[in-house]
């Protein structure tokens, strides 16, 4: 008995293409677990990627300080000068000069520069978590409203059916 081969070349090419396509679909996916495993084994590439995708931003904040003025006054006592016109036989006479004052004003102001570093990877992760939480809350809110509506419709149908049954039983209708 002879077997007949009904497949031509176009059929074989189509079958081979389908097998290769499905094989590519099954092996082409990268799951989260695979990505984490790759990042653990290739730390340098992971660090390079994270540094490029999530750079740390520095922001400088200028905080003006308070101006403090300190007044300092030095008093220098006056000198005692002998009088040049002195008559013989008189006790020596002298003149006292008035004291002199020296005032120094010291102005001090300390300004502050505060450098704040921002971890953009953490901010991105927290923003993603916030978006997921908000969408879950919105879906839960929508689901609860739908549940209530269907519950009221079902109870209304049951009450209407019960009312029709009672009316038919007691021949009210």
Short overview:
It is elongated and about 155 Å long. It has a two-stranded antiparallel ribbon with strand order 1-6. Strands 2-5 form a two-stranded antiparallel sheet. A two-stranded antiparallel sheet has the order 3-4. It is α+β, with helices and mostly antiparallel strands and 173 residues long.
Order of helices and strands: HHHEEEEEEH
User: Which strand order do you get reading across the main beta sheet?
Assistant: 1-6
Structural class assignment: alpha+beta
How many domain regions? 3
Poorly predicted runs of 5 or more residues: none
The shape is elongated
Mean pLDDT: 82
The number of distinct helices, counting runs of at least 4 residues, comes to 4
Helix content: 40-55%
User: What is the number of E strands?
Assistant: 6
